[in-house]
Amino acid sequence: MTTKSDVLIIGGGPVGLSCAYYLLKSGRSVTLLDAKEIGKGSGSGNAGHIVPSHIIPLAAPGVVTSALKWMLDPAHSPFGMKVSLNPNYLVWLLKFVLACNEANVQRGIKPLNDLGQLSAKNFAHMIAEEKFDCAYQEKGFLTLYKTEKAFDAGKHEGDFLQRYGIPVNVYDKSKVHEVEPVALDDVIGGVHFTGDSHLNPAVFLKLLSDRVRALGGEMIENTPVTGFGSAEGKVRVVKTASAAFEAEHVILAAGAFTPSVVHDLKLNIPIQSARGYSMTMSATKQMPRHALVLGERRIVISPLGNLLRFTGRLEVGNDNMTPNPIWIQRIENSAREYIMVDEKLDIKETWAGLRPVTPDGMPIIGHSPHHSNLIFATGHAMLGLSLGPGTGQVVAELINGQATAFDLSPLSLSRF
Asked: For the segment 211-242, what is each residue's pLDDT rounded down to a tens digit?
């Protein structure tokens, strides 16, 4: 059976759903295809942070040195990597190491700033317009520090980001405890990115998927793509086990699974999966007022209404989505080093998900260099949720032949 579509989106996470939403709002017909359940993949268990302050690419000066130091302390390291001789993996690692320089940061700041600001604005507008009740709070993103060395580095980063319009407040010990009473006594300061926000990602994605359906989007779940047919510079057919799809436009928003999905098209898409973890519990007796980062440990704390979530760890090259109980416990232990936490926690969920990471730490957004009707919207690393609505808007603009909200050329696949 062959089904004809206007726009076919492969991937039903925050990016794919956002593309569907903005295309439907612009009057296009949309079919959304996912290998599993829509809105319940790696985007649903993450920290839920909307962080326009994150304008420095993952590949930046000092990252390799920091990663090596962290790996000498494996019980506390926020970073891990798979040992493998797979050629694609080794090439990716080499490209990542080579991209950890100041030139890559300067290339990335403007497009990440443009996309982050657009996305944050779109979140606020969408949530208000659609009346989404998803524990959305515009309280910023507060990093807590316990050592002078880390606090000084945090203040330096804050000074740097302020040059690009990111609002930042720096708090001494007295002020940080006034602003965030759950911080333990040995927290000596904080850096507060006041333009950031957070929400419950699973609830948001459920509401967004329901809205996409209500707008007329066709949602097809548990249907992996098995191949493609292409001719004359276009994707002609998208194949699944149960049906084939002919679409005027195809959007690839498959996250960490992007390289395997497009294997048939012989495209070099340099994305590696990076596993992260979260644990979610009932609200504790004294909840944090803000979304938090534990500076030295790189653990993220998210108050989500009647829930509390701890998130952490970046394991490059690991595509196993089973939570590692050792790391779940270590994440909890790290949280207890910084904030007041109940002695006994009512754990609701432990989770592991995959982030799609490119060698330069920036997403891939734009047309395929070899297929005029194929658009990439992938490679957002840990920011798939945060950058989803901005990506959705610019992808809709591309398909509708409109000028995009900002220059997408730095995010093109052709940069690799």
From this structure: 999 999 999 999 999 999 999 999 999 999 99
Q: Which of 312, 308, 313 is nearest to 291 (CA)?
A: 308
Q: What whole-number distance in Å separates Cα of residue 52 and Cα of residue 392?
A: 16
Point out the least confidently predicted range of 259-268, 277-286, 390-399: 259-268
pLDDT computed for residue 76 by the predictor = 79
80 is written with which tokens?
Answer: 């891990």
Task: Give me the DSSP letters along 15-50.
Answer: HHHHHHHHHHHTT--EEEE-SS-TT-STTTTS--EE
**Residues with Cβ < 8 Å from 195, sequence gap 6 or more?**
52, 53, 120, 140, 166, 167
pLDDT digit string, tens, across residues 402-413:
999 999 999 999
pLDDT (tens digit per residue) in 352-379: 999 999 999 999 999 999 999 999 999 9
> What Cα–Cα distance (Å) separates residue 382 from each residue in 357, 385, 388?
8, 8, 11
CB 192 within 8 A of CB 168: yes
- Say if residues 182 and 308 touch (Cβ distance below 8 Å): no
One DSSP character per residue, 288-306 reads -SSEEEETTTTEEEEEETT
Measure the CA–CA gap between 124 and 129, rounded to whole angstroms. Answer: 9
E strands, 255-298, where? 272-282, 291-294
Q: Which helix (H) or strand (E) holds 142?
A: strand 141-145
End-to-end CA distance of the chain: 37
